[in-house]
């Protein structure tokens, strides 16, 4: 597998580390596909009971690498990872600090246990990019924190700090950045002592009631993304990013 994802297996706990710290672990095509491949491999590996995912350096992930997207035009690599994350049937623990934006945030909504560091800065920027939500986040966020709070966070694209993530129910617990990964690994090790067969059935019990909602959200989000990608708003957002200026969406409004 690519070194864009580091892996370490210890007593049934597989630690996967997103490893592009120079770009805040933003997802290019290689990282999307490598992370998906590691999750798929972990599903069928009997030596893996629990997966912990974190980011190298100071951040979890800045989401889609817009520079890579602008050059390659690869709009749908993240969909491979969407499916791998949604279908992952073993306990998934996430440890996130620093920046967690876009896909770097919505992946976290699928973790069974989410621990955050005090430096967390999460954002769902889709409207500011002229795009729609992804990773079934339009359902997962409502399921976690309720429809009104979810709507506010998605509509406004505001920043979410560690305290707000904990207060709203996005996160399970908050730690100092130094304590974050050790605590996540300790919890994963505790879970890994239990029988995998029981853990698989427990996760199936927890997730089955939400499966239809997740699949419906994936479908409508993908249709929305396909309609909006390359449209006036997304192109204005991309140009503003490349030109290092604030996008002007008001000028795009229909008269």
Strand and helix map with partners:
Elements: E1 5-10, E2 13-18, H1 29-44, E3 50-55, H2 66-72, H3 78-87, E4 92-96, E5 99-101, H4 103-106, E6 113-117, E7 121-123, H5 137-145, H6 147-156, E8 160-161, H7 162-168, E9 173-175, H8 177-192, H9 196-228, H10 232-243
Parallel strand pairs: 2-3, 3-4, 4-6, 5-7, 6-9
Antiparallel strand pairs: 1-2, 7-8
Structure report:
The protein has ten helices and nine strands. With 255 residues, it is of the alpha/beta class. It has one domain: 2-enoyl-CoA Hydratase, Chain A, domain 1. The longest helix is centred in the C-terminal third of the chain and has 33 residues. The model has no long low-confidence stretch (mean pLDDT 93).
Q: How many E strands?
A: 9
Q: What proportion of the residues is helical, as a percent range?
A: 40-55%
Detail the poorly predicted runs: none
Order of strands, main sheet, comes to 1-2-3-4-6-9
How would a textbook summarize the main sheet? 6 strands, mixed
Number of domains: 1
Q: Estimate the global geometry from the Cα principal axes.
A: globular
Name given to the CATH architecture: Alpha-Beta Complex
Q: What is the count of helical runs?
A: 10
CATH superfamily: 2-enoyl-CoA Hydratase, Chain A, domain 1
Radius of gyration: 18 Å
Structural class of the helix and strand makeup? alpha/beta
* DSSP strand content: 15-25%
SSE order: EEHEHHEEHEEHHEHEHHH
CATH class: Alpha Beta
What CATH calls the topology is: 2-enoyl-CoA Hydratase, Chain A, domain 1
Average pLDDT works out at 93
* CA distance, first residue to last residue: 51 Å
